[in-house]
Amino acid sequence: MKRFIAIALVLLLLFCFTTAYASAPGSSGDPLISLSYIHNSFLPAIQRDNKTLIDSSIGKLYSDAQNKLQETYDASVLQLGGYDGYAFAGTFTAVSLPAGTSAELVTGSIFILTAGTASLTINKGTVINISTGEEVGASASVTANQRYFCAENTSAQFSAAANAACLIDGYYKSNGTVIVNPVLFLDVSTTDWFYNAVKYASDNNLFNGTTAVTFSPQTSMTRGMFVTVLYRLAGKPAMNASSVFSDVAASQYYYNAVVWASTNNVAAGYSDGQFHPDDFITREQMAVILYRYASYAGYSQVYGNTSVFDSFPDKSEASSYAADALKWAAYNTLITGADGKLLPESTASRAQVAQIMHNFCQKIAGK
What do you get for the CA distance between the two ends of the chain, in Å? Predict the structure, then answer.
C-alpha cells in the first residue's frame, strides 16, 4: 500500500512539472523541462509564493501574540480598578509635580524623576528599580534619573515633597501637569550652559537625542550627523542625484544629506574620494561647512575685522583652507573658543554643535 502511494505521488509530481512546462512561454513541447526555465521562472515563482505564505503566517502569529499580551495586560489593569481616570503616555512624557502632588502608576508603567525630590509608596504589588536591578521597598525615596518599573498587579504612588518633574511611560493618574515642549533628556539640566541651545535644536528638529531620553551632550559629532543637521535646516530639499562616495550607502540616515551637501558645494569629501561620514567632525571643518552653507542659503559671509580670530593663541594651527571660515565664525561669535583657545583641529561635542547652530540661526539666519 505504501509503495502504491509513493508511485502515485511521483506520477502526480511529474504531471505537474509537465503541465507547467507545457504552458511555459517559449515551450516547444519538448518532454524534458529545461533547467533554464526551472531556474529562471519556476523556482522564483515558488519562492515568491512561499515568501508570501511565510510572511502572512508570521504576521498573523505576531498579531495574535500582540493581542494576547494586550488582553493579559488589560485584565491585569482591570484587577487594579481599570483605566478609569488614567491617562496613557505612549512614549516618555514630561510631567510637572508641584509640592504635594503625586502620580499613581500601574502595571507596566515607568517613572523617572528628573528634577526635585519625590517619595514612593507601593499600594499593591512590586516596584523594581531597573537602573539598579533591585526591588524597591514599600516606602522609599526616589533617586533622580533612575527608572522605576511597576511589575505585575502593581499600583504605586510617586509623591513630590517639593517641586519636582518626571518622565512617565504607560498608564498613570496625576494631579500634576504635562510639560509642553520639554527637553526630554535626562542628561540635560536647566542649569547647564548648553540647555537653551539643546532645547532650540530639539524644538526645531535640527537634531534629537541619541535615545528617547538622552542627548549625550559630551559625545563628539560625526560628519554625517553635522551635514544632516544642515540638511534639516535647509528644509530637506528633494534630491535627484546620487552619492559619489563609496562609503555613503543609500541605507544610511545621512545619505540624502551627504548627497545634498556635496551637490551644492556645502561639504566636500577627502582626497581619497570618500566622505568619511562616521569620522568625528573637527571645529574647523564645521566652520567651513557652515561658511559654505551661508553662501548656499544667501546669508552674509562678511567679517568686518579679524581681531577676535587673531586673539586666539593657537590661530596658527588652523588649516589654510579654513582660515576665512574661522575668521567669519569668530567675528560673528558663532565659535567662541574653549578655554581661551580656538582648537581648530579638535572635535566638537553635540552640546557645542547645538550652541553653534543656535548662534548661527539667531545671528546669521535671523531665525
Answer: 85
